[in-house]
Here is the input.
Amino acid sequence: MSKIPLQFRHNGRDVAIFVDGGTNLLVALRELIGDMTPKFGCGQGGCGTCSVLIDGELHLSCLTLAETVAGRAVETLDGMKQGPNLHPLQRAFADHFAAQCGYCTPGMLMAATALLRRNPKPTLEEIKVGLDGNLCRCTGYTGIFEAIQACAVGAK
Ligand code: FES
Ligand code: FES
Here is the structure.
């Protein structure tokens, strides 16, 4: 099968790869780019752990054909750190014990990023809606919601 050339921006860096037709973005990121931060959970759109931002919008990379991101900007957890420092959301997740095994955390952080960009001061209800596509199998969601609230604009 012939390969399809694909170029896009990955966390602010131009990348060029070849994909098989039908390859999903999750596989392209993990196996061809080497970005292991988007996780494979269900592979069918039900868990959110593969969440990434495409042109700033939240998407499930397991349900996104890699070819469709040609020329677009893809953001993953791998691009979230600020030099040697954690992003404030990552710091807040640590401070609020918002992760146990951590498998869902990359997707949670991407969903939280998308939410806070479009709504910098969400209510608790809006946080719940913003993360309703992301499942955590380990913990209660309280720490996750508290971490996001702590990062809302104006939060003390
Ligand atoms: S792995 Fe994509 S939604 Fe579960
Ligand atoms: S912390 Fe384990 S799945 Fe969420």
Notes: The pocket of FE2/S2 (inorganic) cluster (ligand 1) is lined by residues 40-43, 45-50, 60, 62 (CB under 6 Å). The chain has two domains: 4-79, 88-151. The CA atoms of residues 108 and 134 lie 6 Å apart. Residues 105-118 form the longest helix (14 residues).
